[in-house]
Amino acid sequence: MLQVCLSLFLCSGPSPAQGDCLAIRVGRAETISKGTLEHAVILVEDGKITAIGEDLPIERGVPVLDRPDWVVTPGLVNCRSRAGMDGNAARSFDPEQRASGELYPRQDVWQDLLDAGVTTLGLYPPGSGIPGQAVAVRPRGATAGEMIVEDGVYLQIYIGANPSLKKMLTDAFGKLDEYDEKVKKAREKWDKEQEQKKSKVKSKGKSETEEKKEGQQEEKKEGGEGQAQQEDKKDEGKKDDAKKADSAEAFVPPEPDPKVKPFVDLRDKRLPALMSINKAADYLHLLDAIDKREFLWSLHVPLRDDVDLYEVADKLGEKKVSVVLTPLVTLQPNTRRERNLPAELARAGAKVVLVPRGDGVAEHERWMFDVGRLVAAGLDRQAALAAVTLEAARVLGLEERLGSLDPGKDANLILWSGDPFEPQSRIQAVMLEGKIVSGEVGR
């Protein structure tokens, strides 16, 4: 029975057929959202997690994958990557461009990434400045459309002490202000036109009242239509005019320039931003450029030994900023003292997100090993697990669908031989939206 059911999951498509079901019983489940469950059972149906708990009863007839020594985690989410992409670009202002235009499905790298446990990638556009918008993909599918989970998941922005980078962002906000002023004037004109229409309706109503009086007088003299019939006709006409006035089309703002529209979406919180900086001072330049504008944004900082991000750790913690980092233990500038910046930021209250040290398959394969070194050096274990799953999904705006083992979420799972941070642990199988897409389980 188990062999038959698992064969349903070992097929080429990214989503299961209607009615596919499986119960997975493991020694431990790292749910991320609700901590660790011992003796966990996960029920999967139609590509979604339908239930999870300790020692859940399993309905008769449901196939069971029983591995009491294994550990299950959500699939890994790399929210900032150029894996599988080969485009190059210089500094540019192209906020309307999308990385999805570079997506090429027929590459071996996608299966290699699945084998490494990566079930979701946030692919950002090439170049610096404001090069465009990232796309969230599953590393599986015959076409780009089948791979895309969601397009336009964040706007990539680089900023720092460089005056031209800062000016690029402030100029973009200036263009947004100009557009808002244009919308304001268009609204004022529209409101004025509506008032004029209402005035015409009222004037027409007054004229009809006068005509009604004249008709009544004429009726007495000449014996025309009955008074009641005339009044009905006039009332119907007034109602029609009132309906026309009420059914006026709603105000439609003028269409923004394509390069301004992403900032309209940013302002309206339909599109978040990922701000890339290199040092603590860049963060202050970022705040200066943003001024008092409120929108959704996360921070990306490539870690190096000379990074002084600890200088603003408390400020990032106060704002609960999501900070995307590489899993490195760095050195205090001009010393041999080691600093675990991800751990410091997590303790300060920031939401730490960890991505591989590079875009190659090898860096993805050693991703969890590198994160495990941070855990050994003081990073909270649950924060580390969230950093490669739920918090990464949050940067992509997909936390309601990915990143934790909760009912209703996509069944993207990794089945490990042991603790995922132990060097000897190995990935035994990877499930993507309800299908086993990597591993020899059940064969």
Considering the chains and any ligands shown, give keywords for the structure.
443 residues; alpha/beta; Urease, subunit C, domain 1; TIM Barrel; 3 domains; eight-stranded mixed β-sheet; seven-stranded mixed β-sheet; 19 strands; 24% strand; disordered N terminus
Low-confidence residue ranges:
1-18
**What number of structural domains do the residues give?**
3
Structural class: alpha/beta
Average of per-residue pLDDT values? 88
Whole-angstrom Rg: 30 Å
CATH architecture of the largest domain: Alpha-Beta Barrel
Please give the structural blueprint:
Blueprint (H helix, E strand, L loop, with lengths): L1 H8 L11 E10 L5 E10 L2 E7 L9 E11 L1 E6 L10 E2 L14 H8 L2 E6 L5 E2 L1 E6 L6 H4 E11 L4 H60 L4 H20 L14 H7 L5 E4 L3 H11 L6 E4 L12 H6 L3 E4 L4 E2 L6 E2 L1 H8 L2 E4 L6 H5 L1 H10 L4 H7 L2 H6 L17 E4 L10 E6 L2 E5 L4
Parallel strand pairs: 1-4, 5-7, 6-8, 10-11, 11-12, 12-13, 13-16
Antiparallel strand pairs: 1-2, 2-3, 4-17, 7-9, 9-10, 14-15, 17-18, 18-19
Helix pairs in contact: 4-5, 4-7
